[in-house]
Amino acid sequence: MASELVSKAVSYCTFYFDKQARLTGHSPDCRERALINYVRQNAEKGNAEAVLSAIDSFTDHSWMTILGKEKGSILDDAVQEYAPRVALELGTYCGYSVIRIASKMTKPDSKLVTIEMNSHNFGIAQEMIEHAGLSSKVTVLKGILSELDDKLEDILNEVTASYFDFIFMDHSKHCYLPDFMLLENKGMLGKGTCIVADSVGYSEAQNYLNYLREHPEKLENQLYMSAARCFPCKMTVSAYMVDEENLVT
Questions:
Q1: The domain spanning residue 164 has which CATH number?
Q2: Residue 20 falls within a domain, yes or no?
Q3: Is residue 12 part of a domain?
Q4: pLDDT tier at 28 (50, 70, 90 boundaries)?
Q5: Range of the domain at 133
Q6: Using one digit for the tens of pLDDT, what is the confidence trace for 95-105?
Q7: Mean of the pLDDT values across residues 105-111?
Q8: 15 located within any domain
Q9: Residue 83: pLDDT band by 50, 70, 90 thresholds?
Q10: Is residue 21 part of a domain?
């Protein structure tokens, strides 16, 4: 246990103190590639639960910016409660949360769209999703939301949906509020859309957290705190309560 904690602490510092890693979300020591290799060797292909278990096992000794089991269970509960048919994730990384969400979307023809800006992570996530047997349910896009909004509108039209039923935000924290507002202004949110945001305790996400608190008429919110009691580990689950015809931008 002690050696695992030391290993995890070292891998955390390696990432945290590398400015490029924090900007791009990709580690300088290529631990993301090591992760997919580990999953291929230790998880049965087509078994989503086995893939999640292998990722959890790998990250017991190597720190990575994934949701993890504790907050993952909060995400699971939200997906099961809101039962989305069409979902959107911002910030794919290696595909851990994609697999958690997609494997619990049980409606016929359900679709999850996920966006990742880093080319290395994009490729690894595609491999991870394919190994989990979820490629037919998941579309991975490379870029940022503001460059892909037209593509998202096309996808919504293809699946005959007016808006996304479920949003998970786990990308650059300073983008939470502007991306929420872009989705709202584009009509990609509807009454009852669930919006889950991870790590809202970071200062970069404070404007989003403030917005939630200041607009209770628009968003019904629940705030969760990691058992570790670490401030950045706050997580919100919100229900969008505005009818499209009553939206004032």
A1: 3.40.50.150
A2: no
A3: no
A4: low
A5: 31-246
A6: 999 999 999 99
A7: 95
A8: no
A9: very high
A10: no
Which amino acid is present at 192? Answer: G
- The pTM of the full predicted model, rounded to 2 decimals, is 0.88
Q: How many domains does the chain have?
A: 1
- The two tokens of residue 63 are 């720190």
pLDDT given for residue 6 in this prediction: 41
Q: Which two structure tokens, joined as six digits, stand for 232?
A: 């950045």
3-state secondary structure the chain: CHHHHHHHHHHHHHHHCCHHHHHHCCCCCCHHHHHHHHHHHHCCCCCHHHHHHHHHHHCCCCCCCCCHHHHHHHHHHHHHHHCCCEEEEECCCCCHHHHHHHCCCCCCCCEEEEEECCHHHHHHHHHHHHHCCCCCCEEEEECCHHHHHHHHHHHHHHCCCCCEEEEEECCCHHHHHHHHHHHHHCCCEEEEEEEEECCCCCHHHHHHHHHHHHCCCCEEEEEECCCCCCHHHCEEEEEECCCHHHCCC
Say yes or no to pLDDT of 80 above 80.
yes
